[in-house]
Amino acid sequence: MPGWVWALPGGPGCAGHARRVLRDALGSLGVPPDAVADALLMVSELATNAYQHAGGHGPHELWLYQGGGRAREIRCAVFDAFADAALPGYSWTSGDCGRGLSIVRELSGGRWGLRRTLSRLGPSVRGKAVWFAVPGAAFSS
């Protein structure tokens, strides 16, 4: 899976750092501003989830790569080392929180998912990556 990988801080600055890095990367790829705005909201939700639910289970990483689905789509993923989390039975509308994955699902047009995998930086750590396709964006030929 060629692409880019960045370390994310494990503290409250995780989402802000992810947004800054992704904004710069998507800008350099010429992604339209509306698609960048949607991607920044989605990565913020995923990075916040990684920090809140995986907490001290480091590392946290941001990945940007070409997806294997639609032609050359740009995918973004947030990795954390909390592999026990599962989506089946996830409550999409529970209380004041728990809406982040609903936002990702809607903004990505349903092009998102979760997979168990290994970290890409440093020693391999088991965990999960939650990914989404950047809407309306593709790698150029």
Q: How is this structure best described in words?
A:
The protein is an alpha+beta fold. The chain has one domain: Heat Shock Protein 90. 32% of the residues lie in helices and 29% in strands. The chain contains 3 helices and 5 strands; from the N terminus they run βααββαββ. A 5-stranded antiparallel beta sheet has the order 1-2-3-5-4, covered by helices on one side. The longest helix is centred in the N-terminal third of the chain and has 22 residues, at 33-54. It is globular. 35% of the residues are buried.
CA-atom Rg in angstroms? 14 Å
Sequence of secondary-structure elements: EHHEEHEE
* CATH class group: Alpha Beta
The CATH topology annotation reads as Heat Shock Protein 90
Helicity range of the residues? Answer: 25-40%
Number of helical segments with 4 or more residues: 3
Proportion of residues in β-strands: 25-35%
User: Mean of residue pLDDT?
Assistant: 86
C-alpha termini separation: 17 Å
Order of the strands making up the biggest sheet: 1-2-3-5-4
* CATH H level, superfamily name: Histidine kinase-like ATPase, C-terminal domain
Which shape, going by the Cα principal axes?
globular
List the uncertain runs: 88-93
How many strands in all? Answer: 5
**Structural class by sheet pairing and helices:** alpha+beta
Largest sheet entry: 5 strands, antiparallel
- Count up the domains: 1
